[in-house]
Amino acid sequence: MVLDSLAKSLREALKRINRSSLVDDRLVEEIVKEMQRALLMADVDVALTLEITNNVEKRAKEEPVPKNSNPRNHLIKIIYEELLKILGKPREFHVKPATIMLVGLYGQGKTTSAGKIAKFYMKHGYKVVLIAADTQRLGAYEQLEQVASSVGASFFGIYGEKDSRKVVREGIEKFKEWDVKIVDTSGRNAIDESLAREISEINEISRPSEVILILDASTGQQAGKQAKAFNDSVKITGVFITKLDGTAKGGGALSAVASTGAPILFIGTGEHMDDMEYFNPARFLSRLLGMGDFETLMAAAKDFQKGMDEESLEKMVQGKFTLKEMYDVWDQMNKPGLFKKLFESLPMAPGGIRKDIDDKFFDESENKLKKYKVIMDSMTYYEMENPEEIKGSRVERIANGSGYTTSDVKELLRDYKRVKDMVKNIKGNRKILSLMKKQFKSGNLPEDLANMPQ
Ligand SMILES: Nc1nc2c(ncn2[C@@H]2O[C@H](COP(=O)(O)OP(=O)(O)O)[C@@H](O)[C@H]2O)c(=O)[nH]1
Ligand SMILES: [Mg+2]
Hints:
By secondary structure, this protein is α/β, with parallel strands linked by helices. 59% of the residues lie in helices and 9% in strands. It has helices at residues 4-19, 25-41, 46-62, 71-86, 110-123, 140-151, 164-174, 193-206, 222-233, 250-260, 281-289, 294-307, 310-318, 323-333, 338-344, 359-377, 381-385, 392-402, 406-427, 430-442, 445-451, and strands at residues 98-103, 128-133, 154-156, 180-185, 210-216, 238-242, 264-268, 276-278.
């Protein structure tokens, strides 16, 4: 998960609070020390770390415990509230037709994020075009073209053209009927006058409704300086922090950007086109701490329902369960990390954080799903509908096409068989089936989940 070691230390601290028989000054001081260490390790600014932890200490020692709470929960609440201050305020974001300009230095993830944002809008049913305004870098045209085709978005670029302004002018004109236009601009090694001029001119030409700054999380605290500098040349409406999956320094980037007042809009959590999340500070923190998050649960449940309404559930259980059906189900599960979300958002078990959730399990399952999807993308429609026919040379062809090995393909087929058998069992169990149906109908997942037979 994102910010692994920070999450681990903070969760440990909360667990300790829950385990302790007494909340006294000594415990508070120890917890505060642990928080300091964890925040500094995550690259959060020293002054900010001290401010937050001093507040925790002061409040924990001085504030009376409210009647409806207890000393443990009160301390946890204070920690949560103080940590939340680091992450800034959420920005309201409406999914509607837009022209989006992406800016940022070399290698921050602009082109990749352009694809993710395109996919995000396309999931909402919008027609999207990606415009290749990076005319600086060799291969930028092809890279964006490839990204566009991988998500199924339209693409506009003028091969070999050096004037990015011309590309943007023509692209915006040609695709004016498209709902969402995403302009992938060129970067530099550092912000210089030529970059500032280029993006401010493209800003004039495209008149974007969103100007999103793409920042690599591993930049750490320096991300704050970059955000300020970019904001000086063109008004940033939101920041997309990429590669949060791969760095322990993410805390520095998040807190530094938040402190500039530029709203963090999205975070990137992987190289795959689905690895993007809308950034909501409260939700992000709850997940980091492993606390129950009802909001996330409901959003996840709705997402799941959209793809798995009663009709498709019926189809899945009653009809032929082919790889095609399994692909659809997995596609839902994978968008974005649904399984994990469902589990992480379950309310805290009485007496503490859920101990039974193992991040490794979710990471492994998610990686497996990703792999399986790539493999299935290399199958023909006929093979998806008739998995039992996948043998011998077909296995080899699929392996070659997907870049995986034949044993990966066989593993997928074995797992498919297992799921198929499971579905067969459900078919035979009227009680479970009717419960599942009820659950999808009501949308009231938490309660119904609790009533599911174990
Ligand atoms: N792990 C990870 N890698 C990412 C993420 N976003 C982008 N990348 C990788 O970062 C590298 C640079 O990305 P690119 O989009 O070409 O950057 P650009 O120069 O700003 O357009 C590529 O290898 C991407 O796969 C992310 O959220 N997580
Ligand atoms: Mg690029």
